[in-house]
Each structure stands twice: as structure tokens, then as C-alpha cells.
Amino acid sequence: MLKSLSLQQATWVVFAITLVVIVGAWGFQFAGYEPCELCLKQRWAYYAVVPISAALALIAGNNPKLLRQGLILLGLIMLASCIFGIYHSGVEWKFWAGPTTCTGGGDAAFTSVLPDLSKPAVMCDQPAIRILGISLAGYNALISAFVSVFAFAKAKQA
Description:
The longest helix is centred in the middle third of the chain and has 29 residues, at 64-92. The protein is mainly alpha-helical.
């Protein structure tokens, strides 16, 4: 299937996947699964890739050199997103410490009469939800890895 896609079509595939993922993240948030500080930062890659991929597909048209370079850029952004998703997943599994601003004793901010409003209420080391044992940060790592490999493979193939 990869060989049958043009560079422009592959760029649209990257656009579609990343758009669905960010809309899904907003859907989980709307459903009551509030994102932590790291979750919000993981969205930055999608906020970059969605418009870049759309603009690239529209502007580059059938310019293979520009599309190839664009796919490499998109692949690099999603590779960074994958690494960040792995980092956040490791924080959730307590493999390593996360930022002190959003990890450790999730209810510690509410031990006094008034909450400490200088700290986020959503803890980064406590996943809001796990689906099939994988948190949303874990799914971000997996999806980002897939999109990155896809973009790199298509850029190399062309």
C-alpha cells in the first residue's frame, strides 16, 4: 500500500491521522479526562503537524523534492512526539521522576483546608485512563512512532 501512495497522498495521510488523534484528545478532555501538564505539551507536535502537513500537501502539489523534505520534517516532529510520549509513560509507570510541578502525591495539594492553587490539580504521574493497559501518553508514543516511520519510509521510497 505504501508504494501505491503518492508523496502528496502520504502527506494527506499524515494530516488525517494527526487530526484524528488531536480531535480524539479533545474528545477525552470533553468527556472529563482532564489532561496534565505533560499531556498538554504532547499536543504541541500535533498542533504543528496538522497545519504543516495540510499546507505542504496543498502548496507542494506534485513537487517531489519539497514533499520529500516536508515528510522528513513531519517525521522528525513525530519522532520527538514519540520520545516525549515514552518519557511521559515512564513517569506514569514510575520508571523515572517527572517534573516536580505535576508529580508526586496527587492529593497532597488538598490536604489543607484550602487547595494550593499554584500547583496543577492533575498529576502527571497518574494516568487519567488506561485502555488495554496503555495510557493515553502510551498511545501517543505508539501513534507518533507509526506516523514517524510512515513519513520517513515514504520520503525514502520516493
